[in-house]
Structures are given as structure tokens and as C-alpha cells.
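help with this:

***
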Amino acid sequence: MKIDHCEFPDDLLYDPEGLVWARLLESGEVVVGITSIHAALTGPVAKVSAKPLAASYPRNAAIGFLESGKYFGPIRTPVHGVLREVNPAVLAKPRTLTDASYDAGWFARLQPTNFREDGRTLRSAKDAHDILTKQIAALRVRCFAAFPDHEMFEIGIECSAVLAKLNELLTRIEVGGVVHLVTDDPTSPIEMVRWSDQTGQPVIDQRKEGNLFHFLVRKVM
């Protein structure tokens, strides 16, 4: 399910703040990660740390912390339980936590003490729709398909000139890098399709907000 461009998979459960998700495994353990709301608040993560393993943590206790250039805050467990594992992938590459928050970027695995009780506080995406919508509005969250490494704000400039600058920037950044381009040129949706076809560089997300057009471009070659 998507709400204002923010993704919330239907097979997960969400805490009352809409910041953490949980997945109950057949083993009875619970996998925990951060939602697209939390990821958007944080931005590209620079550092992730975790609390000690094999310890018991009450519901809503911090089991880890994440830090970016604009944010520092806890990751709270939605269940009371013993912390069994912290995802080594996010410790080795912190940005995985926000770039793939519902997949490879899961944060921790816990053995719950009483999931039947704690599970009453969790909601499916459908049941949490109103809560998630209110949180997105209250926190002024803007979700995109990826977090940009570079920003281009090109207002009042013709699209041909903007694309020339984009091409120049792409020669200087690493493969896999993402550029967030903002323009007010009304021809940009058509021009960006033509540019992507010609260059082979994909536009991975786009939207219009007011009179501004937003594009995310990922360098692939």
C-alpha cells in the first residue's frame, strides 16, 4: 500500500507511531525494521549502532540508534523480547537501513516474551492507514524511490540547459549515485523521457508538486 508516495507493505505490522514495522516468523521470532516514514525523516544513514545482544528489552525500548547528517534517534522495539540478532548488512553499510528498509535493510530479530499481548498494539497497513496518513502530514514527510546523493535546483532555466548540466554532473559522480532534479520547465516530463532513452540513464521516480517537477535519476553507466 502507498500513502502519499510512502510504501507500507501489506504483509507487515506497524507500531502506533508508524516508525517501526514487525514481521512474525514461523519460528515465533519477530523481525523489526524502520518504515518509510522513519527512513524519510532520517535521510541517508551515516551510522548505525545496536544495543547488546542476548539482553531483554521492554516494548518501546531503544534497541539501536541511527544517525545521519540531519538526524539522530533511536530504533525502538515494538515488542518485549530478547535481542537475538542485528542485521550485519546494516552495520557494515548503514545506508542499507534506509535504502532497503523493508527488505535487505531489516534491523533486528527478537524472541518476543509475549507477542499475543504486544501484538494488540500493532496494526496492519490497512488498519493503520489513518494513523500513517496523519503521521506523514504531521512530520511533513516526503517519500521518494531513493535518497539522493546530489541535488539540482534549476528554476527558470530551459530544459535543454538543465539536461546539459545534468549530463556534466553524471560524468563526475559514481555509478549508482542518485540525482534529485527540480525544475519548473513544463516540457520537462517529455524531455526527461527522451533524455533517458538517449542516455540509458533511468528516471527512477518523478512527480509534480505545484509548478515544480521532481525527478530522481540513477547513474547506471
About this structure: The CA atoms of residues 180 and 216 lie 5 Å apart. The chain has two domains: 2-139, 150-218. The chain is about 25% helix and 35% strand. The mean pLDDT is 94.
